[in-house]
Write a structure and sequence with these properties.
This protein has seven helices and two strands. It has helices at residues 62-86, 94-116, 123-148, 152-172, 180-205, 217-248, 255-283, and strands at 31-32, 35-36. A hairpin with a 2-residue loop joins strand 1 (31-32) and strand 2. Helix 1 (62-86) crosses helix 7. The protein is globular. It starts with 30 loop residues before the first strand and ends with a helix.
């Protein structure tokens, strides 16, 4: 299963070297960690020939994932706050600020793609991605709050937390069933969404002005709501993969992959919530 973030980076790239835990030894239908083994037909972390069983000390835990995710999200927030304070967006230096924001976004994208195709997670890449992403978000949020919709950033942050809490409750209550069909649908829908986004950018770049109309009005709000729903679906996939990694006894370093996926998904949701609220406030 691939990781739940918009760039479809691989979850469990280190699984080839990871031995199985006791979960894989249970009979089909048994319950381990609150889940039936029928949910797991094979263990992707099963050992290859010549490997020895991993001890509990080297298996990922929920605490590992929480700590790494906190570090990654904290880096995003810190970089965003510093860029907001140190790179004020005003008429005197707006060009410089925009250039820094675009450059940070490009660096974040490059680092995320490198991590996506690595077989093992790299804390330096994940934290570097978080730092550059934070700079981009800080400048973007400052611009919107200053010139377009004052106060909308706080609303977007609260909205992001609300979406996250809602998905977590729905997942824990099993109102959301994450299976192959769900994963395939999310992948197909996201591909279509990204293609529309690219087409909109191309139309805007080559003289179509407002592109396909996704930047304002009712169509823009609808497009943003679809983006939020896709982000929520990715978050459900993230929760499933965290649960699977712990149940399978994935190696501890994969906590960084969980942090990477969760951070990317939360950034996605924040941007889409910010888009919807900005359009709504500017139209009013």
């Amino acid at each position: 299963m691939r990781t739940s973030n918009p760039i479809f980076s691989r979850w469990g790239a280190a699984r080839d070297a990871g031995p199985a835990d006791a979960y894989a030894l249970q009979p089909v239908g048994a319950t381990v960690g609150g889940r039936s083994t029928a949910d797991y037909q094979t263990n992707p972390y099963a050992p290859g020939a010549g490997t020895s069983p991993r001890t509990d000390r080297t298996a990922v835990t929920m605490d590992d994932i929480i700590v790494r995710t906190g570090m990654t999200l904290g880096t995003v927030v810190l970089a965003a706050v510093l860029s907001w304070l140190l790179l004020p967006v005003d008429e005197a230096n707006i060009g410089r600020s925009y250039g820094i924001a675009v450059g940070a976004a490009l660096f974040a994208f490059v680092l995320s793609m490198i991590q996506a195709f690595r077989r093992t997670p790299s804390p330096a890449l994940v934290l570097g991605y978080a730092a550059f992403e934070g700079v981009f978000l800080g400048v973007l949020s400052s611009t919107i709050s200053t010139y377009i919709a004052p106060g909308v950033v706080v609303q977007a942050v609260l909205g992001t937390f609300a979406v996250c809490a809602g998905v977590l409750v729905a997942y824990r209550m099993r109102w959301i069933r994450v299976n192959r069909r769900f994963t395939g649908f999310v992948a197909a829908a996201t591909t279509g969404f990204l293609l529309l986004l690219v087409a909109d950018l191309l139309f805007s770049a080559f003289g179509a002005g407002n592109g396909l109309g996704f930047h304002s009005g009712g169509l823009g709000i609808v497009f943003g709501v679809i983006g939020i729903l896709l982000g929520a679906a990715f978050l459900a996939l993230d929760f499933k993969q965290v649960e699977d990694a712990i149940a399978y006894g994935a190696p501890r370093e994969e906590a960084w992959l969980a942090a990477f996926g969760l951070t990317t998904t939360l950034v996605w949701i924040y941007l889409e919530v910010l888009r919807v609220l900005t359009i709504f406030n500017s139209d009013n």
